[in-house]
Amino acid sequence: MKAVNKHYQCMMFDEMKLREVCNKIIHADVVEPHIQEAKNGGHEIDHHNWLGWSYATEESGNKDIPEPEPIKWNHLTNNIRLGGRHHNEQWWHLLEVPTFVGAIGELLA
Q1: Contact assessment for residue 25 and residue 10, using Cβ atoms and an 8 Å cutoff
Q2: How distant is the alpha carbon of residue 20 from its chain centre?
Q3: pTM of the prediction?
Q4: d(CA 100, CA 12)
Q5: In this predicted model, what pLDDT tens digit does every residue of 42-58 receive, in sequence order?
Q6: Which of 76, 101, 106, 77 is nearest to 25 (CA)?
Q7: Contact, 87 vs 106, CB < 8 A?
């Protein structure tokens, strides 16, 4: 266990030990996927929308057709958001799933 803690440092929880990480998972009241907004704010479909708008304005000659709005999109990260209470104090942490699974896998190997 010490070797795994040292190797992974369980950075997902501000360098908590693996045992503490497991306790947070067990006692979490909130377990939900962590979602992140796209950094550029756009979506690959925006390109198709833009081409369609461009084609429509060229073919019709109508320059009053409004430009398409960029599509806002989110994606799942490799994290799970955990939350709970300990002695009436709320806590929140992100569980880095690949790091956690790697640490558990090393213990079982």
Answers
A1: no
A2: 22
A3: 0.59
A4: 8
A5: 666 777 888 888 888 88
A6: 101
A7: no
